[in-house]
Amino acid sequence: MEARWSELIAADQAHVWHPYGPMPAAVAPLPVVGAQGVRLQLADGREVIDGMASWWCAVHGYRHPVMDAAVSEQLGRMAHVMFGGLTHEGAITLAQRLVAMTPDGLEHAFFADSGSVSVEVAIKMALQAAMARDPGRTRLLTVRGGYHGDTFGAMAVCDPVGGMHHLFAGTLREHVFAPRPPDGFDAPLDEAWAAEVERLAERHAGELAAVIVEPVVQGAGGMRIHSPACVRFLRECCDRHGLLLILDEIATGFGRSGTLFAADHAGVTPDILCLGKALTGGYMTMAATLCTRAVADAITEHGGGALMHGPTFMANPLACAAALASTSLLLDGGWAADVARIERGLRAGLADACDIDGVREVRVQGAIGVVQLDHDVDVAAATAAALERGVWIRPFRDLVYVMPPYITGDDDLATVTGAVVAAARAG
Fold this sequence. Notes:
This protein is an alpha/beta fold. 38% of the residues lie in helices and 17% in strands. The protein has helices at 3-15, 53-56, 65-75, 89-101, 115-131, 152-155, 191-204, 228-241, 263-266, 293-301, 317-331, 334-350, 379-388, 410-426, and strands at residues 32-36, 39-42, 47-50, 106-112, 139-143, 176-178, 208-213, 217-218, 224-225, 244-248, 272-275, 287-292, 359-365, 368-373, 391-392, 399-402.
């Protein structure tokens, strides 16, 4: 690595705070100088396959010609314009497209600038709509094992015990937590779990505004997979008790779980839907919160008249251009075959991990592959083992997992799964 990069890494260690880490970072980050397809180009000359799709968002890979062209063309017209009192074609077209793509009944799109903020908006929507008819409805019901973001409203509905935000216990709004949904995509509805959720919903119905969950796949809270039957039950439970259903599909949306949206596995429409990550294919930060007409009407007519949120970069034109390009690529339909192919490759390639001492379970759903250990991962050792095989991964807690770009070819996928198995053995 050239001397300039040694100086830059020293400056990084001195001044840059990286995600979920101390200051300075315990391990110096790898410098990236470029990316193409599914590969990251490192400053020392190595190329590594990105098994993480840049935290699950770069589903089309890097430097995709359609994505590059869309952002470049938009940059030639305008990079940004405020959304208060103004509008532009990209935002209008994107809202129309998201309404058409998402489950029937979602009619309105609010654009935010990150997944966490889309959850904040969803919570505000639910509270304003519910309090319009009953000022006492100020809490949410959710399940253990969930993760919804790092801002304060979102943190409050993350798992308060096993989640990464337990340090903030006592400073966050206290919501109602049901047990984590039982594991198993193909499992029937667990009657004991359903009865406990029903009991909590009935007991707290007068103070609850909504239920919020990640459907089918819980992401950063533990990469757990549950049955669509659980999601259908929650929809029915909400209907019985007059609650709104919020589905957080920031991680699962746009094909990652095997259907375009994880709600499609269950055949349900939420009252509020959170989207992000793959929305822009990893090119720009952007998220969206969609809701039904009934939710919008409740806020507009009885909940104060206006939804009290307005990010500075709301509906940023560059981000809208990236989102339109990303969703256009998805609407071409090739993603479904690619995700199914990746799922088969993950199942085959990760099977060897089952025989490793210390591996508790191997899970695959769509383009998500997870190896869970019976101990916390030695992150440095696991990462090094994967890098030796030409793959970038980011283990956490007791998990070695991958969410590769959808364009990952079969040979590269085999390299990825081999790296995960090696990382699990090393970690």
